[in-house]
Structures are given as C-alpha cells and as structure tokens.
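fold-stage: in
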Amino acid sequence: MTGITLHLMRHGITGMTGRLLGHHDAPPHPDGVALCVDRARPIDCGRILTSDLSRARIPAEFIAAEKQAALHVDPRWRELDFGAWDCADAADLPTGALTDFWADPDGSPPPGGECWSSLCARVSAALGEIDAPALVLTHAGAMRAALSVLCGLDHRQVWTFDLPHGALLSLRLWPDGSGAQITGLAA
C-alpha cells in the first residue's frame, strides 16, 4: 500500500498569541508567514489547500506561488468556532466551563460555538476530497480533528499532540480510505 501523502501545517503566529482564535480572522505575523514558507520548501506536492482565514491563507498563498502549485481555499479547514469565547484569553474564562469543554467538547461546547463532532464532520468531508499529495495550511483544532477522523483517536488523545505554530504533521492516507499512518511531526 503506497497511499497518498498529506501534510497538515498549522499557521504561524499572529499578533494575538495565547487567545482562543476560532473563526476570528487575525492576520498572520510576518515571522509566522516566513516560518510556514521555510517549513514548506522541502515538501513535494502540487496542491495546496488552506483555510479561508488569513492567518492560514496568506502563508498558503506565498507557498503556492513559490511552488507554482494550485491553491484551493476551503473554509472547512477553519479552526473550531469558539463562539462567545472567540479571541478570549483562556485565563479569563470561567474555570468550570472551560474544564467542562476540554473534558466533553461535544456535550459542553463554547457558548454559541461549535461542538467537536461538527468540527470532525467538516474536516472529514474535506479529507474525503483529497486524492493526490497535498499540503494543507490550517489550524491546530482542524489538525486534531483530522487525526481523530483518520486515525480513530478521541478528543483526549489528539490533545496530547503538541502542535505549536508552524507545526507540520505528515500522514500517509490509505488508498482504500480506511485510515492513515502518521509519518512525521515537526514542531
């Protein structure tokens, strides 16, 4: 089984590091863009996919231009929608509510936000369309959802992965669509 190589890259830093940035469109910091571009240079792929949020889209535009690769913007690769918590510093949120969310992101989603299974469903739909080697510029939550969908890991297991800004997670997707194998993680 050879499979399809898929690289998932978390966007670089923004000017709002340390906040719950869900669907808020925080622009990328130039250092974050440079990190993503540098990390993508050795990747061999002709297709770049990205979240529509500028912190992922802008570095993806630079990478696609440098690689002369097709760029596809897809909002399904967005971060989890944190609803009323969007842009909040986790330290400022009610401890009980945040603890409940981390323990059960489906039963206790952020107020007005998205539950974990909804994030997994939209990422799963996006993954279902990948039929050739690709690089996806996205967000930590979407990367964890992809791990959950592809590798059968639950939310507690995927949150054990440290995915700092610019992290690159490489997977081999099985050709029969039955799952994937993690082949690399550069943080």
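fold-stage: in (second)
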Amino acid sequence: MILPIVAYGAPVLRKVAQDIAPEYPDLQKFIEDMWETMYASSGVGLAAPQVGKDIRIFVIDSAQIFEHQEEDEKDEYPDAPGFKKVFINAHIVSLEGDEWPYNEGCLSIPKIREDVFRPETVTISYLDENLQPHTDTFNGITARIIQHEYDHIEGKLFIDYLKPLKKKMLQGKLNDISKGKIKVDYKMTFAK
C-alpha cells in the first residue's frame, strides 16, 4: 500500500524516533509499504517519520542513482552499483573521511534541492528486515543516502545543514510546503 508522505512542518519530522521491539505489529507489511511508497514517489530512501511513524526504520536503494547515470559517471563513486537495504533501530557508530557536497532533495520537502556537505564514509549498526544485527561501513552515494535517512530518525532535515542566509531565502517555499500550497505527483499529508 502506498502511504502518504508527511510534508515539511509536521511535528513527527522533528521527533527523535524510538527503537522498535521485535514484536512490532505488522513489521514486514510496514516495510513492504515503505518500499512501495518510496518507489512510487521516485525516492532513493524513505524513513518512517516521513510516513508519520516515529520509529527507527528507514529503507534505501542507491542502485537507482547508478541506473540513471552515464557510464563514465559511475566510476566517480566507490559504491557503484549501489545497495538496497532496510535499516531497523539504526545507530551511527562513526563518520569518517572528507566532507563532500552533493545536491540533496527530500520527499518531505519537495521542489527544493541544495548542496549539503557530508562525510565520505559511515559505519552504522542496525537490524535488517529479518531482525538480524549488522555493523557495516558504507561510502559514496550510499553513505550519503544513509546519513540523510538517519537524520530523519534523529528529527533532523537536510535543510538544517544550510547556512542561515540560504535557509532564510528558502523560508517562503518552506512555508508554502507546510501549508500544502505545492503540487507533487505523489500522495502527501500536510501539517494542520
């Protein structure tokens, strides 16, 4: 089932999400719904707060970025051809490497894209969709998507990384998003 994406301004996007217990009801169905919602919205990552749940789950599929790149661009990133993963109860262990810019966007903040600097490498502990524990290190585009989605479960948004003047310049657009004065080609819910 395709879930509505929560728009900027909704309080759930600013809450630190809670770890879930193994007996969380209908977990597999919720994960399937997240995948379906992410793909239907043309996203490469989706976190539970973006669909109104303050729980520590996010999904990523960085392979989609590589599928749409020219062959010579794929060599620029060490994580080609990308990864598709579910992260449950994730906690970052370390961030390493030089910070590099990439033009990020967010399904909850449509039609706004800005360069954000993030470290090259992330090491993260998490449970997979079968609730098996992992601690893995990711780099390149995959590391960036993981950091972006991880921010969502920490109550943070990519616009929080922007300089105050840039954020102030975007305030009108952000206000329009929070009031529902925006058209997108996927289901959204807006803060009241």
